[in-house]
Amino acid sequence: MMVMNFAFIEGKYNGSTFTILGRNPVFEKVREMAVIGGSGLVRFARGYVEASTHSWDFKTGDATVQYDAYVLHY
Q1: Which domain holds residue 23?
Q2: Residue 64 binned pLDDT confidence (cut-offs 50, 70, 90)
Q3: What is the arithmetic mean of pLDDT over 44-53?
Q4: What integer pLDDT is reported at residue 32 of this predicted model?
Q5: If exposure means fewest CB atoms within 10 Å of the residue's CB, which of 17, 19, 30, 69 is most exposed?
Q6: In whole angstroms, what is the distance from residue 22 CA to residue 47 CA?
Q7: Is 47 within 8 Å of 37 (Cβ atoms)?
Q8: Interval 3-34: pLDDT, tens
Q9: With 0-12 CB in 10 A as exposed, 13-18 as middle and 19+ as buried, what is 49?
Q10: Could you give the CA distance from residue 52 to residue 47 in angstroms, rounded to a whole number?
Q11: Average of pLDDT values for 42-61?
Q12: What is the largest CA-CA distance in the chain?
């Protein structure tokens, strides 16, 4: 189970956030998680995020993960 907040730090959406929640089976190539809400200009956000791991250092546990977000808001 993974919960993560994404925050905008520039431009029109500066200060707004959206939250994802879902299962994150890290050994799968692409994982999909739901956008469950937002704040600021993306209040009531809905959508999904696709996560894919580009590199993973098994010794340190460090990983580089790409998150592609598809978000609708009102």
Answers
A1: 2-72
A2: very high
A3: 96
A4: 97
A5: 30
A6: 12
A7: no
A8: 999 999 999 999 999 999 999 998 899 999 99
A9: buried
A10: 17
A11: 94
A12: 44
Q: Contacts from 42-49 at CB under 8 Å and sequence distance 24+?
A: 42/8, 42/13, 42/16, 42/17, 42/18, 42/71, 42/73, 43/73, 43/74, 44/73, 44/74, 45/18, 45/71, 45/72, 45/73, 46/71, 46/72, 46/73, 47/18, 47/71, 47/72, 49/20
What values do phi and psi take at 72, rounded to 5?
A: -110, 140
* Side chain identity at residue 18, one-letter code: F
How many structural domains are present in the chain? Answer: 1
Contact 21, 43 (CB under 8 A): no
